[in-house]
Specification:
Structural class: mainly alpha
Keywords: Lipid-binding, Signal, Transport
GO biological process, one term: lipid transport
Number of helices: 6
Shape: globular
GO molecular function, one term: lipid binding
Mean pLDDT: 79
Oligomer: single chain
Pfam families: LTP_2 (PF14368)
Distance between the termini: 57 Å
Number of strands: 0
Protein name: Bifunctional inhibitor/plant lipid transfer protein/seed storage helical domain-containing protein
Radius of gyration: 21 Å
């Protein structure tokens, strides 16, 4: 009887662990950062929406820095200011 209960317990535990939420993956899409355009292009302070998106897209920043069409924006002084204001360090890639 004890072994049946133990087996059931282990089975249920394994089942629950298997269904445990995994880390949310981010879809890298530079247009998600459109709310930061004003801050990056004009030195305006970043909005809360900008900071939220920047935090969300942080795992993608290295990819964006390597993109010839985007690296000028990502590496700009204003972009660094926005990143600092939002508390999102630009990764060294």
């Amino acid at each position: 009887m004890k072994s049946s209960i133990l087996f059931l317990f282990l089975f249920l535990t394994a089942l629950l662990l298997r269904r445990a939420p995994t880390a949310v993956s981010v879809t890298c899409n530079p247009s998600e950062l459109s709310s930061c355009a004003g801050a990056i292009l004009t030195s305006a302070p970043p909005t809360a929406a900008c900071c939220a998106k920047l935090k969300e897209q942080r795992p993608c920043l290295c990819e964006y820095r390597k993109n010839p069409n985007l690296k000028g924006y990502i590496n700009s002084d204003n972009s660094k200011k926005v990143s600092k204001s939002c508390g999102v360090p630009i990764p060294s890639c």
